[in-house]
Design goal:
Layout: H1 5-16, H2 21-43, E1 52-56, E2 62-64, H3 65-78, E3 84-89, E4 96-97, E5 107-115, E6 126-134, E7 156-162, E8 166-171, E9 177-182, E10 187-192, E11 203-205, H4 216-226, E12 238-239, H5 245-255, E13 258-261, E14 274-275, H6 276-289, E15 293-295, E16 312-313, E17 315-318, H7 320-331
Parallel strand pairs: 3-5, 11-12, 11-13
Antiparallel strand pairs: 1-2, 3-4, 5-6, 6-7, 7-8, 8-9, 9-10, 13-17, 14-16, 15-17
Helix pairs in contact: 1-2, 2-3, 4-7
The structure holds 2,5-anhydro-1,6-di-O-phosphono-D-glucitol (AHG) and manganese (II) ion (2 copies).
2,5-anhydro-1,6-di-O-phosphono-D-glucitol (AHG) binds at residues 61, 90, 112, 115-118, 207, 243-245, 261, 273.
Length: 333
């Protein structure tokens, strides 16, 4: 018999003591919200959800209608259950406190409601990324600084990719498991357990159009890959770039590879494009839980203590030996 997400969560709680009841509820609610977002994504033009809104987020990016819809779905689903103290989102300037009319819980939920926004209108895979932290002990009134915890403090992380299939990928610190949405049943069904990323790969994912802006270590690494069999690596590499982190990471969890969004000279004062708390931390933990690695070139991403909510970071993640190599080029140029 197939295992639904609900059954999986109950069994994890019983057997491994990994998931307290409040966290189970949280994961059920997040999964339900993802189901609803998946439904909107699938409707596309028929649901009037394509195109841009007339607003910008704190990063100065024009919001798409689906960025806003997905953000609202996640808030509406999560605010009343009593499992959360507050939420933070890539699409909201400041944290969202659970309104006083609802009971409050111990957890903090962070999300990139819709990742890969540039792919919405062209019908290419997009997704939702989320991360859960615990409210620090003794804190009554949560404020932004309570969110500023390193990724190593996450209690659960995951993403849902809306592609040809809708797939939910989860870790609670006990490996990585994948669930596929069964639309007839309306539930997520466990389809892949104990995901492992091979240590070696012949595939890299990076936005090559930024090459002239990269730093030397990244240029050197990619240049060596491009030399293929005749170069120092002695093998041919393939390049894949979907421009939805969620889909690029999903490919890496499925068959290995290395994904990079490095610092570049376009905006030298920013440490990178991707957001530490909504994108890099949850993805880094998933990748590590699957036997891969994630660094910013100099240190493990999960060790970075954020100084602000919307902090950005340079990202190198995926197959262990490749991440080690690129990181080595940064540390010993
Ligand atoms: P978002 O849609 O949440 O803003 O994130 C987009 C991110 C990430 O998913 C992707 O890897 C990258 O931006 C794409 O950047 P390019 O525009 O450089 O391809
Ligand atoms: Mn994103
Ligand atoms: Mn986004």
């Amino acid at each position: 018999m197939s295992t639904s997400l609900s059954r999986y969560l109950v069994e994890q709680q019983r057997a491994k003591g990994k998931i307290p009841p409040e966290l189970r509820l949280l994961l059920e609610v997040v999964a339900r919200a993802c189901k609803s977002i998946s439904h909107s994504v699938n409707k596309g033009a028929l649901g009037g959800v394509l195109g841009s809104a007339s607003t910008e987020n704190i990063q100065g990016e024009v919001q798409k209608k689906l960025d806003i819809i997905a953000n609202e779905v996640l808030i509406d689903a999560n605010e009343w259950g009593g499992h959360l103290a507050a939420m933070a989102s890539e699409e909201m300037d400041s944290i969202y406190l659970v309104p006083n009319r609802y009971p409050k819980g111990e957890y903090l939920l962070l999300f990139d409601p819709l990742d890969g926004s540039s792919n919405i209108d062209v019908n290419v895979s997009i997704g939702t990324i989320f991360s859960v932290l615990k409210k620090p002990d003794g804190v009554e009134d949560v404020s932004e600084k309570d969110f500023l915890q390193s990724g190593s403090q996450q209690v659960t992380a995951g993403y849902c990719v809306y592609g040809p299939q809708t797939t939910l990928v989860l870790t609670v610190g006990n490996g990585v498991d994948m669930f596929t949405l069964d639309r007839e049943q309306g539930s997520f069904v466990l389809t892949h357990e104990g995901i492992q990323i091979p240590a070696d790969t012949k595939e890299f994912a990076i936005n090559m159009s930024n090459m002239r802006h990269w730093d030397d270590p990244v240029k050197k690494y990619i240049d060596e890959c491009l030399q293929g069999k005749e170069g120092p690596r002695g093998k041919d590499f393939n390049m894949r770039w979907i421009a939805s982190m969620v889909a690029d990471v999903h490919r890496i969890l499925t068959r290995g590879g290395v994904f990079m969004y490095p610092w570049d000279k376009r905006e030298p004062s920013k440490p990178g494009k991707l957001r530490l708390m909504y994108e890099a931390n949850p993805m880094s933990w998933l990748v590590e839980q699957a036997g891969g690695a994630a660094t910013n070139g100099k240190q493990r991403i999960l060790d970075i203590v954020p100084t602000q909510l919307h902090e950005r970071v340079s990202v190198i993640l995926g197959s262990n030996n490749e991440v080690e190599r690129v990181t080595g080029y940064h540390l010993k140029p």
